[in-house]
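Hey Z.,

So I finally got round to the magnesium ion thing we talked about over coffee. Here's the setup:
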Amino acid sequence: MPTKVICNRPKLLVWDIDGTLLANKGVGKRSMSEAFERCFGIANAFETVDLAGAVDTDVFEACFEANGIDRTRMPTFLGVFYETLEARWDNREATLLPGVVDALAWSSECGYTNVIGTGNMRQSAQMKLRKFGLERWFVGGGYADDCAHRPTVVKTAIEKGALAAKRTFQTEDIWIIGDTPWDIAAGVQNRCKTVAVATGGFSAEQLSNYSPDVLLETLEQLPAMLAKM
Ligand SMILES: [Mg+2]
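And the result:
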């Protein structure tokens, strides 16, 4: 944390979780498969699913359909999934990504509003944040429970942030921070600014093809970059 905190106009920051704030090292996917097998006796159901940038409701519904499972059994599956994720989570395996705590502390010192915009279900998102003590920085967010469409999840996150801050933000002061092309696309669809960070499954070179407003190797560079905006 620099001694002199440099800020600019009030901002609303919308943060993705996996690959952006933390690396879960596949525990999310393994928990999905384990829960599916416990509920329906089908192993490795999520083995070939790419979760990068995906919205969980979409992933779960596709898997139910592919395996001929009735949708009415979703609540049962979700309950077992949350239980499995909690039981399998290990902070020695999952890690907080570089610069995350300093970037959140900086943002909070600037009086900025922080919300989550994730493809995770609310309950798994909140569990992941709690595991690293990050929940205190956020005033709410948009989750997979809100919609199976990422741009709408981000739109919900923006609305929650404005409500919590009791103000509206100009679109040039709303920043969507994520590690995949889908985070960038969700920001563009909401006419917001985008920060792409190469700490997930995409390299900086790959992310540059999607023209984010700011491209970072890690969030360690975020305060210095956003302070200028
Ligand atoms: Mg992500």
